[in-house]
Design goal:
This protein is α+β, with helices and mostly antiparallel strands. The protein contains 6 helices and 19 strands. It has helices spanning about 25-40, 105-115, 135-140, 180-190, 215-220, 245-250; strands at about 15-20, 45, 55-60, 75-85, 85-90, 95-100, 120, 130, 135, 150-165, 170-175, 195-205, 210, 215, 240, 255, 265-270, 275-280, 285-290.
Length: about 290
Amino acid sequence: MTEHRPRPEGRPIDGLLLVDKPAGVTSHDVVNDARRALRTRRIGHAGTLDPFATGLLVLLVGHATRLFPYLNGEPKVYRAAIAFGTETDTDDVTGSVTRTAGVPDASRVRESISALTGTIDQVPPAYSAKQVEGRRAYAVARRGEALTLAPVRVTVHAWEIRELSDERLDTVITCGGGTYIRALARDLGRLCESAAHLSSLRRTHSGPFDVANATSIEDLRAGKAIPEPARAAVPHLPAITLSPDDVDHVRQGRTISAAGSAPIAALVDAAGALVAIAESVGDSWQPRVVLPDA
């Protein structure tokens, strides 16, 4: 759990905030809670969760929202429960049953999981945010209109079977961005010549970020959640410590001499605070995102 530090009066809020989203609220609801608690409108999230799902939401606050292009959000890890015997129109437990079938045997489930591992073409759920001809798929589905969604290439790194019974699979899925776990549940049922839907979902990891370090929604609403420094948002980037003169140059958007072979780096001051994200151009660091002096 992230340690909650008192916020110095008047200090701007910039940084990373991990939140453990509960079921029954939207990702946007969590962002709104954070805006109220932190008293700033400048907050965004790196990837939504469906309202019925729980787990990790990665939020960037203040000027740190400019770091979104540099976040490392992969792989993503989910704890999922898949129910066999029924398929729904949303591919999850919130939908209406559209088809029933007998439950598959365990060997068939394991074979089908193999077919859904690696780089695959996945048809998104009918109730998804995918756009077709300028319309959101879920909006079209709610009106009862037929809509053909094109398959999307996604990567499923691994399934870890935690428990498998006739009616249910409890699994941990590690995948790349853009993968719909609901669609994996649907397709697993079909490959088994059965039917299936996602009955629960929890995101535990997104790249280097772990839900174990996330704040609860109760602490967020109570004003106890304090963002981590902006540097925590890009832990995968090598740090280059700047001299005081170079800090001044970078804050003015000027290039400085480069050292090392990294194509992109986090430029930090002597205290380790993030000053800028910079790219190596020739023998210089070119600032791409400069954060204001806190």
